[in-house]
Amino acid sequence: MSTLVIVESPAKAKTIKKYLGPGYEVVASMGHVRDLPAAKLSVDVKHDFAPKYAVIKGKEKLVSELKKDVEKSDKVILATDPDREGEAISWHLSTLLDLNLEDKNRVTFNEITKTGIKNGMDHPRAVDMNLVNAQQARRILDRLVGYRLSPFISQKIRRGLSAGRVQSVAVRMIVDREEEIRAFKPEEYWTIDAKFTAPSRKVFSASLYGDENGKIKIENKEQSDAILSRLDGASYSVKTLKKGTRKKNPAPPFTTSTLQQEASRKLGFQTQKTMRTAQELYEGVDVQGIGTTGLITYMRTDSLRISEEARAQAAAAIEDIFGKEYLPDKPRYYKTGANAQDGHEAIRPATPSITPERVKDSLTSDQYKLYNLIWKRFMASLMASCVQDTVKLEIAGANEKDAAEGKYCLFTAAGYSVRFDGFTKVYEISDDESKGSLLPEIKVGDTAKLKELIPSQHFTSPPPRFTEASLVKEFEEKGIGRPSTYSTIITTIVKRNYVKRESKQFVPTELGEATTKLLKEKFPRIVNVKFTAQMEDMLDRVDSGDIDYVSVLDDFYGEFEKSLDKAKAEMKDVKIQLEEDITDIPCEKCGRMMVIKTGRYGRFLACPGYPECKNAKPLVLETNAKCPKCGAKVIERKTKRGYTFYGCSNWPGCDFMTWDKPTDEICPQCGKSLFKKKGGVVECLNEGCGYTKKSASIELNLNAGFFKDIVGKAEAEQAKKQYRYPIEDTIYGNGIQGGLAVLTAKTRPVSSFEEKSVTANCRIPVTFQIKDRTKVAAEGASLNKTALNFTVTRKLTGDRKNPQETLTVSAPQILSGTFAPDYFDKKDINWTVGDHAIIQMDAGFVEEGIADGDYRNAKVSAKKDTRWILDLMEADDAAHSEHIYEKRTGYGTRSTDVIMAAKDALGNIQSAACSVKVDFVTDDQTVVMPEEIRADQDTLTFALTLTKSGSRYNPVLSWEGSDAQKITAELVPEAALKGNGDGNFVLEWRSRSGAVKAENGVISADTGASWITEAMKKYPYTAETTDEITVKAGTIEKKIPVKLTFKLVDRTWSGSSGGHSSGSGSTGSVLKKLQNTGEQPKGSIAGEWRKEADGSWRFVSGGKTYAGEWAWIYNPYAKEGQEKTSWFHFASDGRMQTGWFLDEKDGSWYYLRKTSDGNQGKMQTGWLKEGEKWYYLGPTGRMTKGWNWIDGKCYYMDQKNGHMLAGCMTPDGYTVDDTGAWCVHGVVQTFGKK
């Protein structure tokens, strides 16, 4: 049987094949075999972001060969790297080679050693789809961002740009750090150090800590000088002495991140180099005496875990190499971070007993350096602590006066010595790399003799730019990317010119800053550090199967697509021009300065006037050299891979080409240009010339006693005169006074006759002359202020829509400059302003009482009528136009510098800068003014009826039509109303004549008003009047007319019997005489009923017959359940009326019962059915019309005839069912207000 094992790299395959032996065929997939095609998006967004994979171009033959190998094998093992990428490669291989994904054919090797391979082969498993999905999610997410966002920024900034989910955040971090550095304002501080001599006569150093009140912070020279003055003539003694012991513990073994950081810091390796070299050490190296073996464990890990087997091996190696005392009392265990995947061990030597020295001859220089670093860090992490003896002392210094008052200045000194070196024997962490100072033997109370006090000026420093080490650390702390991707991220942003390296630090390019600014404005989530970290956390959760990767993609893409569409719309015709793309080359056709653009075939020059001017030409970088063949200019060119070479500008007419860099020198033999080769050799490339130059430098040893003695004496003499005067010209040496040197030059044997070196000597007389042409240079400059702040205030008052505006600025400020020394050889003194659009400066301004002598003055004031402020105001007004009732809130800040510089006679410039900040603020004191008052009713009507009933001498009064009415009024705009934001107005209600009362929109008639009392005094007891309600807010009013009518209905009776006084007598036979017995309700009438011959009834009470009026008649014979009193109406001839009756006095219809069942003539109330129609008579007997709520339901009575409508739509558009009840969608509406 044969087993096919598939790994990624040939080197790894070679090492594994050695350990597996016969029966196994090990082949390499050469990394990924399938991926998303680069030509298009290759992600089906509409169908759960389905990826459309294809075999990578150029690997078709490899896949075909793998398929043949599978057919020939009995078993297939997938042994790709033990991480997400490796798992994805195994999955792609399974898919392409038709392997069963449920088969346990996946193995991983933590280390490529015999033990590591055996452990992996003994524990096969199925492909982990959670890891595969996590890799797919990252791949698809990166593809969506890159392929959707990159074309947008390429269109807006420069062709060929790219954006990435993580790389863009990395660029932003570097850009943000650069902005911090630019905004940083250094602060001055001072330190005072002292050198003391102990009683043992040994010198040691100490630093000023404080005084009797505690720690001192020295902020300027004045404070420093004050302390030095205080210490003038002081005595010093040891105040306290503390001795102790401290332990230094080793750092944990490497993770991917810490390995990249330490390799950068200690070895100067870039992350890409670190990971490439670590991969080589992991996959296997051919070691003399051992064979091919992996030297380290898997290098992509965030775990600090160490296997017990590795611990035992390391402990044995430590004891063997260093001794048993270098093992700790208890084994060290390191805690892995909470967010770590912990999929693999920490990075360590695969076999701890293999020391770096043992394999040095088998490794490349880079491999050895990195293995040495990993081995020492790992071994140190398991070794004993370093034990140090520490000492700290305090020295008090005071002059006689301070000592008498108990005052002193306190200096501190600290030192340590190593009692046991422990882990530092093999590896020093950064804190221990500088050796500690050892203090001399001294005790409390001993006198310390002051040797020197050294005041030093310092300035606080801005945050440092990122190095590879610090950037990787920042990635890890912020959760950006994963350690395995750090190298790729950094390589990408440098390669694409978003950042560049300067002295191993990252500096953003103009392109990087412009791209970051665009992304921050239009896609804030894409470059948000916290959001990116959250996305990484979500993707990690896919690893463990906690969430589905499609949901993660869906949540991200929806918001991203909206932002992209919005950005495209907002920047439809916008193009961002970079300063670095602008040249000083004029367009030959239109005269505009041409710009650099990037096309399909690289960068070229184009006219910015396109499409009006379509001029374009190649971008040529010329040198000063001439072609040695044809004499044309030599230009810089690039290969397809980006390497620089130099060729003739007449190409293809001239084929001259070289990798050597042109110089500005001319060949002394033939006059052609010289070129510089590697190694510093300069030669002529003109065929047949052969001139070569390699110079030898001759240097004088100016530290020789001959020179030092002469210079020392001359400078000492000059110092006495405070350097005001130059040293006098004097000639020394002349080849006699020790001024003689001999130069010896030897040739290499291969270049000399008979391969023997040739020696030539040259005697060089040395004449030394001091020619002092120095001037007194300006050594320092300072300003009385380091920062100025101004405020431009836009004050708005009055109506918010049309405000009164004033623009004020804070008072000018005076800057005064001083220079040191005051006698330097001045050439000129200049004041400059960084941005004249922000401030104006009156240089040379002299403040009253200050002479214009050793310093100059300048009056600085902020400009208020300047473009940037006007732009802010216009933008604020534009925003306000969409929200006219909100306060204007415009603000902004601009900063610049004022620089005072002195140029001395030597051309040296000493300058001092003062930062100037101008704040623009808006002080909006406007109010929202009322514009209109709206009411839901334009008029009101009150029809007042006063009914008097019962005894005329003690009548019962009842009002109708006097119910209060509600008017809803609103103030336009609402913002003007008090309680709405900053509204300041309230609605005030009042009536003109007092006929009505108006309180907060509730309008009620005053039934005690004089017009009513007057109407009640004379017939016909009716009256009309008008009033007017005024609603007011500020100066705005709304007037609502009110019409009022009054009518008095008198239903009282007079006489002692309670009979009604009106009406006339009547004759006829008495059918029945009713006796007034029992308890009679107050106000009711008792009397006799008489039936006439024609069958009509009349009622007589107190000798009077009722006629043309109502009567409330008492029935003493009413049985239980019957009404004891009822209303009747009698015609003008005295007949009791029945049926429908129109009372002309109030215009209402009433119904008097017709039936002869004892209820005839009685006034009907409630429901009444007449024929097929229903009517409703109110409690007073009146027939109702229109809408009425009756027993919890709403009915509509015909406005003309009063009958109830049923099973139809009412005139005002509402539906009533067959019972007449109001309904909505078939549901009867109850207990509401229609």
Description:
The radius of gyration is 53 Å and the shape is elongated. It has 1234 residues and is α+β, with helices and mostly antiparallel strands. Strands 8, 9, 10, 11, 14, 15 and 16 form a 7-stranded antiparallel sheet that branches. A 5-stranded mixed sheet has the order 37-36-43-42-39, with no helix packed on it. A 5-stranded mixed sheet has the order 46-45-53-52-49. Mean pLDDT is 84; it is low at 431-435, 734-757, 847-854 and 1054-1077. It has 21 helices and 68 strands.
Keywords:
single chain; 1234 residues; alpha+beta; 7-stranded antiparallel sheet; 5-stranded mixed sheet; 68 strands; 22% helix; 32% strand
Shape: elongated
Strand content: 25-35%
- The structure class reads alpha+beta
Name the average pLDDT.
Answer: 84
Number of helices: 21
In oligomeric terms, what are we looking at? Answer: single chain
Topology:
Layout: E1 3-7, H1 10-20, E2 24-28, E3 34-35, E4 43-44, E5 50-51, E6 54-55, H2 60-72, E7 75-78, H3 84-96, H4 114-121, H5 129-156, H6 167-183, E8 188-197, E9 203-211, E10 214-215, H7 221-230, E11 235-248, H8 256-267, H9 271-283, E12 285-287, E13 291-293, H10 308-321, H11 356-359, H12 365-381, E14 386-398, H13 400-404, E15 409-420, E16 449-459, H14 468-478, H15 483-495, E17 499-502, E18 505-508, H16 510-522, H17 529-543, H18 549-570, E19 582-586, E20 593-599, E21 602-606, E22 616-618, E23 621-626, E24 633-638, E25 644-648, E26 657-658, E27 661-666, E28 673-676, E29 682-684, E30 692-693, H19 705-720, E31 730-732, E32 740-746, E33 759-765, E34 768-770, E35 780-783, E36 787-798, E37 803-809, E38 813-820, E39 826-833, E40 839-843, E41 857-862, H20 867-882, E42 892-904, E43 909-924, E44 932-935, E45 940-951, E46 954-960, E47 965-966, E48 969-972, E49 988-991, E50 996-999, E51 1002-1005, H21 1010-1015, E52 1022-1033, E53 1036-1053, E54 1088-1091, E55 1097-1101, E56 1104-1105, E57 1109-1114, E58 1125-1130, E59 1139-1143, ...
